Predict the 3D structure of the following.
Amino acid sequence: MALLSVEDLEVRFFTRRATIHAVNGISFDLDAGETLGVVGESGCGKSVSSLAMLGILPKTGRITRGEVRFGDRDLVKLKDADLREIRGRDIGMVFQDPMTSLNPVLKVGDQVTEVLRKHLDMDKDGARREAVAVLDRVGIPHASERVYDYPHQFSGGMRQRVMIAMAIACRPKILIADEPTTALDVTIQAQILDLLKGLVKEEGMGLILITHDLGVVAGICERTHVMYAGRFVETAPTNELFDRPRHPYTLGLLRSVPRLDASQKEKLIPIPGAPPDLSILREGCSFAPRCPYATDESRERTPMLEGIDGPMHRVACWNPVPDAEVATVASSSLEASGS
Amino acid sequence: MTISQADERSRAANLVEVEDLKVYFPVRSGIIVDRHVGDVKAVDGISFEIKRGETLGLVGESGCGKTTAGRAILRLLEPTGGRIRFDGDDITHLHGDELRRLRRRMQMVFQDPYSSLNPRRNVGNIVEEPLNVHGIARGKEADGRVQELLEVVGLPRNAGNRYPHEFSGGQRQRIGLARSLALQPDLIIADEPVSALDVSIQAQMINLLEELQDEFQLTYLFIAHDLAVVRHISDRIAVMYLGKIMEVAPSARLYERPLHPYTKALLSAVPIPDPAVELERERILLKGDLPSPTNPPSGCRFHTRCPFAQKKRCPDEVPELRVLENGHTVACHYVEEIDAGRITTRTLEAAEPVAVPG
């Protein structure tokens, strides 16, 4: 059985001016030891869906439909107090910005200790020892001294390590990392991704990695979901997704990012237009206005995620990118990797 | 050919020449007595040139001084030392009218399209302002020019009547670009112009920058941290670390054959959107963080994190930028030995505790 199972999750924001259709029915399973990627651009609903799963949506947001099954419980129906027990103990979370996610007036050690004492009922000394151990595990040098430092005495990368330490202190079964490396420099990003990979391997944690960076996903995730306008538009094993992207949006994304290893200076092919306004819910595929393959059907009826090239690869599109077209992409990337 | 002739010829080919540029920010302490206790050496003696019509990419991690270098060239910051030449003239300490006339020829595109446009002025006014300030056009004439500019950057001609908040991030970045093109500058310094944009929009902007360069014979200094983007757009790339230039090379060459250990590590850390490639790649993981620029390491600035560092020379002798073959310039004592495989990576012990920033 899956560790976490999300079924038809829908999230709406009710503001005075409009209703924002942030997440429009997403479903997925996460197994133990699995690393799942969710990619999409800003505003596609990838962060909101993770906040919703943990029950920490901002006040205006509400889950309007769907289930989040964790063990035998549905997190959507749980009371706040019960949910609070699960958050931090069974499901850890790492946010993007390590500068604002730590309390600036508390010593780093106390912030890690707090998690342990709350969730695992440890005594002060035990929690302190465990805090040092966990900070050491995430690669903070001289952890036994640094627990007495404040967040401002740490660099960005080190703060992100502290965040990860807090998230994994109680040995959670699931870790949700929302753009964990976006605020960091590339050399530090490589360190943090390496750390996350190691943790998944050692602890058998399920990891959900939310990011806009296709490169990050390629390096670490086994399965990847591509999100657009609050829906998954394509989901596949990562290799397959990059080799044979079938949704025009996925293909568009891959073609619009410059690759460090591209064989020549190819011209980038941008996706025309801009993402849709989510306060208006239209019938039809939400990518249709920007899509070169759009037909009348895609403008009128919303496509569902359906299997293509086998059950593991699913795409929500009336006119998946034809094989011939995909092949040209695959061969160009092969060329690049061969060089 | 005499030396001065050669000098003159290269000067004609170069739009910008930077020589031993230093920009220090003083650190002061004390409430009553204002004492000068040290300097943040943001840029500490860098030299490079930008040829007419080329794009020079300036890359490095946050805090390496790349933005400061760009601002000093624009003379938004007063250089502490060194020399900046623009089109043959020394502009290091220009001021007043002369500086204002110079600014017509060099413009900036900023990173953040949300804070670099005045929210209370309509787009027409924003794009028109440089024309007014420099007394180039007013009234009807300026309006016509603004419409042209908006069209050039791919916005509707009537966008001038609307306000910045009505536009998306990518469109706002286009507005900023139209503003910087208004004076028909020779040099555009673009500081992270696409970092704030979503990937699908980034490509639109990068293509636009390339088209405009061809159309108006622009010279770019392209400052960014994203190596893939920089490589795509640049003819040559300069890599900075802690206020110093580590390596300069034509962009294709820099990627194919990075010579400086820092460049090697930097390139190997960039994730590539292809799982097959990611699986095969060898990654040089750097230990620790960037040291503080207030108190940079002695000798080679990179020696504290360098996987190839040697006990001799690296800790106490500052490496000069040396010209190797094919326009490849590197600041490393042991670059030949490393390239030939005579020095290999060693495992570094756990990094020192990080210096407290600020």
Observations:
- Chain A has two domains: 4-221, 236-338.
- The first strand of chain A starts at residue 4 and ends at 14.
- Residues 236-338 of chain A form one domain.
